[in-house]
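Case study: Decarboxylase.
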Amino acid sequence: VDFRHLFRSWFNRGFLVLRPIDWHTPANILEKIVEYEAVHAIDDWSDLQRRVMPQDRRCFAFFHPSMLEEPLIFVEVALCRGIPSSVQDLLAENRVAMDDEDTDTAVFYSISNCQEGLRGISFGNSLIKQVVAELHQELPQLRTFVTLSPIPGLMGHLRAQDDESARKLVAAAEAGDRDAIATLSDRLRSHAARWLAEEKRPGGAPADPVARFHLGNGAELHLIHALADVSAQGLAQSASAMVSYLYDLDRVEANHEAFASQNTVVMSKDIRALLSRGKQTGKTKE
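Here is what the predicted structure looks like once written out:
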């Protein structure tokens, strides 16, 4: 308990330094970004270059004054027009970079904690909020701040359902059959909406850990995308589905308070429609 208290004090947000990571960052730190990337693996230096060098890409990390060559947590950001629905499109080799004035959306597509010894000390909340503030000041034309996040528990949820569409989705994901997933994309999105919005842990918090993180930060459950991550990992953990959480600067604090006090899942009309359609489909089958 004493050690935990000390680490929380030593790594208090007031001591942390936010630094941009780009192609001019020292190589020893860039190597650690490659090593610590936990969401979408960085294959090589060319892959890293595509994430930190183009003008429409950003990366930010928190450092501690006593560990200036060791990132604590970092976030990768894509500047886009509109909300993207595929992480493979964001990371494509032949992508054409956009000019600043053509972008209106900042997409947080990867957040990685770097220090195993600091597990349980949350830096993500402060990191996202500060990066949003930095980007909003640098690029005032940005109006939308969203994530493109994984849904790590969705495949387990699908396997637990006594539902024909869930069984077909599991089989299609295991076979890597994108066409079959596309045919069932509406059902996949409905299953994902139910998992994220309605499945709970004891105590009432969402069962999905990524949902707990972003909803706890004050984000809104905003959009669910099918065929958003067709990598082997994406198919294995969520049958290709990903989710966008919206950080509405005018509502973040109110959303955070609602979640913290009552585990309220703030969601968009699109998510509510998916939940409604899913329940109607279930009644029809009964």
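For the exam, be able to explain this: The chain has two domains: 2-147, 154-285.
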